[in-house]
Design a protein that fits this description.
The protein is an alpha+beta fold. It has a single domain (2-148), classed as Immunoglobulin-like (Sandwich). 19% of the residues lie in helices and 58% in strands. The chain is built from two helices and ten strands, in the order αββββββββαββ. The strands form three sheets. Strands 5, 6, 7, 9 and 10 form a five-stranded antiparallel beta sheet that branches. The chain has a three-stranded antiparallel beta sheet with strand order 3-4-8. The chain has a two-stranded antiparallel ribbon with strand order 1-2. A hairpin with a 2-residue loop joins strand 5 and strand 6 (74-81).
């Protein structure tokens, strides 16, 4: 009886590491657009468009995410979203979220970008995707790339 219970527990644990008999492959995220929403004295709000690519053969039900965005090697903003969406199997979904920054952080970054006038700036976005899957509640992500600043 004890042996049967141990087999059942191990089977349940290993089933939680897979979905539909396949291991969960981590999705990738990328920043596809950014724009200013509000530019107040003490706080600035930006809309950030993100794209999530799903390499799995099953849909990923995302119920939200929390993240930190770094620009040019420095922490720029943090954000959370409870916006639920599904990323289709072998597909991608885009969504927009808002981030807030404070004046000192924004001035430091803007002065650097104005002074150096780069055409692109490197970014790092890291955090956790919150999922609605059995036994897989969240998965970490860390993605980097370049954002085009639209300068010619």
């Amino acid at each position: 009886m004890l042996r049967l219970a141990a087999v059942c527990v191990l089977g349940t644990i290993s089933a939680g590491c897979t979905t539909f008999d396949q291991p969960l492959q981590y999705p990738s995220l990328s920043v596809t657009n950014a724009r200013v929403l509000e530019a107040g004295i003490f706080e600035q709000k930006f809309a950030i468009e993100l794209s999530v690519q799903n390499p799995n053969s099953f849909d990923l039900p995302v119920k939200g995410l929390d993240y930190t965005l770094h620009l040019a090697g420095e922490k720029f903003a943090e954000g959370v979203t409870a916006q639920a969406f599904s990323v289709p199997a072998f597909g991608e979904s885009s969504f927009e979220t808002q981030v807030s920054t404070n004046l000192m952080s924004t001035i430091r970054h803007l002065s650097h970008l104005i002074k150096d006038a780069p055409k692109e700036v490197d970014y790092l976005i890291e955090g956790k995707l919150k999922l609605s899957l059995p036994l897989v509640r969240s998965i970490p992500f860390s993605e980097s790339g370049l954002v085009d600043l639209g300068r010619d």
